[in-house]
Design brief:
689 residues; alpha/beta; OB fold (Dihydrolipoamide Acetyltransferase, E2P); Rossmann fold; 4 domains; 22 helices; 18% strand
Length: 689
């Protein structure tokens, strides 16, 4: 979709579209609409059915209706409070009477005349024995032919209305243009797809509801097809690297014998998959996905142990100094038993220490190196790097990971994540990786008791925190924002921490933590918390992926309705790591049904995967799973829960295309290749080389 004929260019700035201009273009930019193409790809989120005229006696409570009514009374105005006036009148047809209300619309007195008939559209409620429509739209009867139809409903921002977007897109379509078609007639016929022009036009201006489904299918297929095609190419490029490392010694029984626990069946299965990769003639490129506490770290340790036994070095990169230190200290005690030489390098490591570590790495006097971003510095060199383990990989950019992988000749890649992602979505987002799932928690692990409450429980919660701390425990309190934002009615981390220090918990040690603090400050606070020198840590989600503090048993989350379920689950996973019963308390004053429903899910389930499925169902994909962090675009139209059949079809089509034309060099695939580079140019820069 790059070119259109006529007066418009898809890449033209939205600012120069007639009726927009500089001021409105800023509003569009806030909606991530920068070009004419972005506007046309700002697809409707739903539709209003105005195809049928209804009589008043046919109204159904809570439905939207288009109807003709004769005004039977003058508009009466009631001033409810300073900034709220309600304007009321009654209308009738041959079948009944309906009450109409408008809020703060004084101009209506001059627009509506008693005894005249008008066309109305709005939502019906049935209350006190009569039908009521609040804020109905009003049209002249002569406009009936224009008003009847299926109306697209777009996601908006302040200053941009439905009618405004509708008119802009209509203007573009009045100047005949054509999208450039990516797919051949044969390809479209095979997968039963509309032409691109027909699909885009009918998604905005559908003739009937049936045609919307065909239009959606084409557009969803295209975005999922291109995404999976790009990921397959990336994967194939990884597989095409000649594997020079050889693995023969893969016995891990001696390592397993010193562990104070037995691997779960799920861990055994994943370990077998890793062993199979190592023994194959292709480099491993595997994602291990497991819930918080499922035992991913020990799997990484076993994999690195095998690599070292075969004469290679391994590295493990974590997103924070705290997490890198945690992995290092936790695993070093096992590696020391077998004289596996370990080291750690972070931003806290001095220049002299780094020089010493680097020399030892080059001389193969270090077998396993732990660290943060410091591992990818240019002067870090390995004698024989065989494996790279990346923890919480979505915290790193693609280039950072590639830079570390390139420090060896043919590196085995193992990526770990505790971010719960439904399998359907994971298979697509990580199509460039093989997927392993640890879907079982170690036996004996206590479930975290979770409660969703409103602010009326404040005093009881504070007393509960004091009781737990008097028994030697510690607590996290999480707030969404660093600075006060009255509009969202959230207390800042700093203000809440200060209030706790001065009032509720003045006899306890309270500290705060947020993302704007320097790394050294954050590390110092977390170290104190881990060592029990802090009773209550007030924080933003910076502790979402963090240190293991077995003594912390309480997680309080303020304004919990503002978080996604996956984020809540990650935060909850900071507790429940020791022998004591742990608790997660979700505080919210949001009375909406959906907000309460989502928080109740947290009360009922401790499974990250189950919660992720529910969150996907309730919120849609959006940027929910860190798609942007993965380096991929946000979906325009696809809903991976509802569109799983299209996802499968697009996946199959992408595999078949790559099998027949590995680098998309055939003439019929030229436009597909061009579109891929437009979307994923940075990731695909090595395609065909």
């Amino acid at each position: 979709m790059n070119k259109i004929s006529g007066v418009f260019d898809l890449d033209m700035s939205i600012q120069y579209l007639k009726g927009v201009g500089p001021a409105k273009s800023i509003l569009f930019n806030n909606m991530n609409i920068h070009t004419v193409k972005d506007l046309l790809e700002h697809f409707p989120r739903s539709y209003e059915d105005r195809t049928k005229l209804k009589n008043i006696n046919e109204f159904i409570d809570q439905e939207y209706v288009l109807f003709i009514g004769r005004v039977t009374s003058v508009i009466k105005t009631q001033k409810v409070r300073k900034n709220l006036s309600i304007h009321t009148t009654f209308v009738a047809d041959d079948t009944g009477i309906c009450m109409l209300n408008w809020f703060n619309q004084n101009y209506l007195k001059n627009k509506i005349n008693v005894s005249n008939e008008y066309l109305f559209y709005g939502k019906v409620t049935y209350e006190y024995g009569r039908y009521v429509v609040d804020n109905p739209q009003i049209y002249d009867l002569k406009d009936l032919h224009k008003v009847r139809g299926i109306y697209p409903i777009y996601t908006l921002t302040n200053g941009i209305t439905q009618n405004y977007i509708f008119k802009l897109i209509s203007t573009i379509y009045q100047n005949n243009f054509l999208f450039e078609e990516l797919f051949s007639d044969e390809f479209r016929k095979k997968y039963d797809l509309y032409e691109i022009d027909r699909a885009v036009k009918n998604i905005h201006f559908p003739e009937n509801f049936g045609i919307i489904e065909y239009a959606r299918k084409r557009l969803i297929f295209q975005e999922l097809f291109l995404l999976q095609l790009a990921l397959l190419i990336i994967k194939n490029n990884c597989l095409s690297v000649t594997k020079v490392s050889k693995y023969t010694n893969t016995n891990i029984e001696d390592f397993l014998s010193i562990l104070p626990f037995k691997l779960t069946n799920a861990q055994d299965k994943v370990m077998n998959e890793i062993m199979s990769d190592l023994l194959s003639d292709k480099n491993m490129n595997r994602l291990v996905q497991g819930d918080v506490g499922s035992g991913k770290t020990i799997i990484a340790a076993l994999a690195m142990y095998v690599v070292v036994k075969n004469g290679y070095q391994a590295s493990m990169m974590a997103p924070t100094t705290i997490l890198a230190n945690q992995h290092y200290l936790e695993l070093k005690k096992y590696f020391d038993v077998f004289n596996v030489r370990t080291a750690i390098i972070t931003s806290s490591t001095t220049k002299k220490q780094k020089e010493d570590i680097n020399l030892k790495l080059r001389n193969h006097e270090i077998d396993i190196i732990f660290g943060t971003h410091s591992l990818i510095e240019d002067n870090i060199e390995f004698a024989n790097l065989g494996m790279v383990v990346t923890d919480e990989q979505h915290r790193f950019g693609v280039e950072q990971r590639v830079k570390l992988n390139n420090k060896g000749k043919s590196v085995e890649v193992l990526i770990m994540t505790a971010t719960p992602i439904p399998r359907t979505l994971a298979l697509m987002l990580y199509a460039d990786l093989d997927l392993s799932i640890i879907d079982e928690l170690p036996p004996g692990r206590k479930l975290i008791k979770t409660y969703a409450v409103d602010k009326s429980y404040e005093h009881r919660i504070n007393e509960f925190i004091k009781k737990q701390i008097s028994e030697g425990r510690q607590a996290y309190v999480v707030c969404p924002l660093v600075e006060e934002n009255e509009e969202l009615n959230m207390q800042s981390v700093i203000e809440l921490a200060n209030r706790y220090k001065e009032n509720e918990f003045k006899d306890l040690k309270v500290e705060f933590l947020h993302g704007k603090m320097k790394n050294k400050e954050k590390d110092a606070i977390m170290t104190k918390f881990k060592e029990g020198e802090i009773n209550i840590l007030v924080s933003t989600t910076v502790i979402e992926v963090g240190v293991n503090v077995p003594n912390a048993t309480i997680m309080i989350i303020e304004n919990a309705d503002r978080f996604g379920l996956a984020a809540l689950h990650q935060l909850r996973g900071r507790v429940g790591r020791g022998q004591h019963q742990s608790y997660c308390i979700l505080k919210s004053n949001n009375k909406s049904t959906q907000a309460l429903e989502r928080l109740k899910i947290m009360e009922k389930s401790n499974s990250g995967f189950e919660i992720a499925e529910k969150d996907l169902e309730l919120r849609g994909p959006g940027d929910f799973f860190g798609i942007r962090q993965h380096g991929l675009p946000e979906f325009k139209l696809a809903n991976l829960l509802k569109d799983v059949n299209i996802l499968k079809m697009a996946g199959q089509a992408s595999k078949e295309l790559i099998a027949n034309d590995k680098n998309l060099e055939k003439i019929e695939n030229k436009k597909i290749r061009e579109e891929l580079f437009n979307k994923f140019g940075e990731q695909l820069r090595n395609i065909g080389t």
